[in-house]
């Protein structure tokens, strides 16, 4: 019976975690360039399985399993829908690849293409002006703010017909290795080799979040039902234990 409490408790904890992940996705359904998180749940091995001691355990309990376990959070890197804005400082990548940005000495990748010129004349993220956009040589891009700019479909920036820079667009190889580091920034693991990507740069567009609120709400309701079912099982087992100790175990 105590083992049953353990299994139900693991169900409550993991589904509570999954509920938080889904709620965060819904909260960012309107965040430009946001990539939804995937809460991966898997069966947890029993203690005897982890130690290789199945023969020393109860075979009936071993068949039940070790409950639920939350695996490492995964990121869904599929592109979101493209929305026109009419602003030539808004860019969307039609294809694979990420913009590269650099703030306090650390480089990140992002699909957020809402750019501005910060006070230093450096091209930067509009929601974080300290994050400078990098060119194809991974250097910050400085632009003369007094002249209009044009951005071609390959990311080349020109002013008055002269090339200023080319926006760096990189492929990190395995997208599953990327980790979120606040906002829409993705941290690049040490040792990852970035290669040049060549998607079509769509000027005057933004890439919306790839979160579908209707799907997330459906998953949220399913998660809440599973959480409640596990919580109810804990209550039922607690009542059974109470009867076992106070009624069945009572000496007449």
Can you characterise this structure?
It is built from four helices and 20 strands. The strands form six sheets. Strands 7, 8, 9, 10, 11, 15, 16, 17 and 18 form a nine-stranded antiparallel β-sheet that branches. It folds into two domains: about 1-75 and about 210-250, no CATH class; about 80-205, no CATH class. With about 250 residues, the chain is an alpha+beta fold. The two termini are about 25 Å apart.
Summarize the structure.
With 252 residues, this protein is an alpha+beta fold. The protein has four helices and 20 strands.
Record the SSE blueprint:
Layout: H1 2-27, E1 37-38, E2 41-43, H2 47-51, H3 59-64, E3 68-70, E4 74-75, E5 82-84, E6 91-94, E7 98-102, E8 107-110, E9 115-117, E10 123-125, E11 128-133, E12 150-151, E13 156-159, E14 162-166, E15 169-171, E16 179-180, E17 186-187, E18 195-196, E19 200-203, E20 205-207, H4 213-248
Antiparallel strand pairs: 1-4, 2-3, 5-20, 6-19, 7-8, 7-11, 7-15, 8-17, 9-10, 10-11, 12-13, 13-14, 15-18, 16-17
């Amino acid at each position: 019976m105590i083992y049953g409490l353990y299994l139900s408790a693991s169900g409550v904890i993991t589904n509570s975690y999954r509920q938080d992940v889904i709620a965060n996705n819904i909260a960012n359904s309107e965040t430009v360039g946001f990539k939804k998180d995937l809460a991966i749940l898997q069966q947890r091995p029993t203690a005897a399985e982890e130690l290789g001691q199945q023969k020393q355990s109860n075979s009936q309990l071993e068949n039940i399993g070790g409950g639920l376990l939350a695996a490492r959070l995964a990121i869904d890197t599929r592109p979101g829908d493209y929305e026109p804005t009419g602003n030539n400082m808004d860019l969307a990548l039609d294809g694979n690849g990420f913009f590269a940005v650099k703030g306090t000495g650390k480089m990140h990748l992002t699909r957020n293409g809402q750019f501005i010129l910060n006070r230093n004349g450096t091209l930067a993220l509009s929601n974080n002006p300290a994050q400078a956009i990098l060119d194809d040589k991974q250097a910050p891009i400085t632009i003369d703010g007094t002249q209009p700019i044009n951005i071609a479909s390959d990311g080349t920036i020109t002013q008055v017909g002269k090339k200023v820079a080319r926006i760096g667009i990189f492929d990190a190889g395995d997208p599953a290795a990327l980790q979120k580091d606040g906002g829409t920034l993705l941290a690049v693991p040490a040792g990852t080799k970035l290669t040049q990507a060549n998607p079509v740069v769509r000027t005057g567009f933004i890439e919306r979040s790839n979160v579908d609120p209707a799907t997330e709400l459906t998953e949220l309701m399913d998660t809440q039902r599973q959480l409640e079912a596990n919580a109810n099982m804990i209550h039922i087992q607690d009542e059974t234990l109470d009867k076992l100790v106070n009624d069945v175990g009572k000496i007449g």
